[in-house]
Amino acid sequence: MCRGLTLIIVQKQFAEPAGTYVEGITSPRGPIWHSTGKSLTKECFPSAMAECSCRADDRHGDGLPYALKNTEVLVARNPCLHPGDLQKFKAVEHASLSHLVDCIVFPARGRRSPADMMSGGDLDGDKFLVCWDKDLIPSTLSQPAEYPTTEEPVKFRPITDDDRLVYVAEYTNASLGRVKNLYLDWVRVKGPMAPECQELNRLFSQCVDGIQIKIPPRLESIPVIPLDNQKFILDELHEAAAADIARGRLRETNLACAEFDIIELLVSRQDIAITEFELFKLTAKRCRRHGMCLGDFLSYFDMNSLTAEEKHWALSSTQQLQWAPSLILNALCTSKIVSENDIAHHELNSPRLRWKRTLPPKRSRKFRKSW
C-alpha cells in the first residue's frame, strides 16, 4: 500500500512535489509545540490529529530545503498492510527544528508512539512516506493495529560470539514473500479488514523481525477471485511497471546496435531503464567493437553500486590496466575529499583496501565521484 502511494505520486508528475521519503525521529527537546506555545497534549489517534514537523529538499526547484507549514500530511511506512498503518498529522514549522532536513519529527507525548502505529515501526532508522497531496489524503482513517511484541529476555552479562552466532542462525524471513502473496490474494477477495488479512498482517510483522512462523493451512486455501472483480490501483501500477521494464529491456537491446557516442550514452543514463552493471557491460561491448579503451570511461561509473560478482566481471574486462583494480575495488580512489596525491602518499590506493561509500550520492552523474 505504501509503495502504491509512492508510485501514484511519481506517476502524477506534479509540477510541485507532493510527497517525499524521509527518516523518522522524535522531538529532541521533548514534545512538538503548538503555534500558541502550549505543549502538545493531544493523543495520537485519528480523532485528535497530532502535530509533526517535516523539512525536505526541494528536488524540483532551487534545491533549497523547505518546511511544510500548517499542512495536513499522510504518513506511512513499509510494510503497510493494515488500513490503520496510514496516519494523518498536521505539519507545522518550528524554528528550533530548522536544521533538520529530510526527516519527520514526531511528537514525544501520547498514549502510543506514532511510529509504532504505522505497522509497528520505531525510530532506529525507519523511513517514512510523507504525502501532502489532498487527492490522496483520506477524510477518515482506521484505528491502528495492535502488533505483537517480540521482546527478548534481558541478559545481565556481556554478549559473546556464541550469542551472535545463535542470533544469526535463528534469524529467518523465508516466509516473508509467501505471507505477503497470501495477504494480497485474500485482500482481493474479502478486503483488508477481513479476519484472514488481519491474521496474515500479524504474521507478516513477525516475519519482518526474523521470527520463525507457521502459516495455518486454512489461510493457504484462497477463495477463487471472481472474473468481474475490479482491479486494485496497485495491480494497475504493477502492470504498468512491468510494461515499462519490458520496454526498457527492448531499448537496451536496441542500444547494443546503435551508433552514437559512448559519452552521450553515459551522460543520458537517467533516461535509460538499465542498471549500472548493464550499462558497464554495454560500454565494454562497444569499446571492444570499435577498438576503444574501456579505461577511459571507468570514471563515469559508480563502482560502489556493483556487487562482488559484478566487480569481478569488471576486473576481467580491464585486466590490461594495472590501475583499474584500485578504481573498481577501492572507493577511496574516487573521493573528492582526499586528494589523489595524499591517497598515493599514504598508500591508500591499493585494491586490497576495500573502502566503500556508505552514503549514496544525491547529485547528478557528472558529480557522482563526490563524497
TrEMBL record:
Reaction catalysed by this enzyme: RNA(n) + a ribonucleoside 5'-triphosphate = RNA(n+1) + diphosphate
Assigned keywords, A-Z: Nucleotidyltransferase, RNA-binding, RNA-directed RNA polymerase, Transferase
Record's GO cellular component terms: nuclear RNA-directed RNA polymerase complex
Enzyme Commission code(s) on record: 2.7.7.48
Pfam hit, one: RdRP
RDRP core domain mapped to chain residues: 60-210
Top-level taxonomic group: Eukaryota
UniProt GO BP: siRNA processing
Broad class of enzyme this protein falls into: transferase
Molecular function terms, GO-annotated: RNA binding; RNA-directed RNA polymerase activity
Listed PANTHER family: RNA-DEPENDENT RNA POLYMERASE, RNA-DIRECTED RNA POLYMERASE
Family under the similarity heading: Belongs to the RdRP family.
Protein name (database record): RNA-dependent RNA polymerase
Organism: Microdochium trichocladiopsis
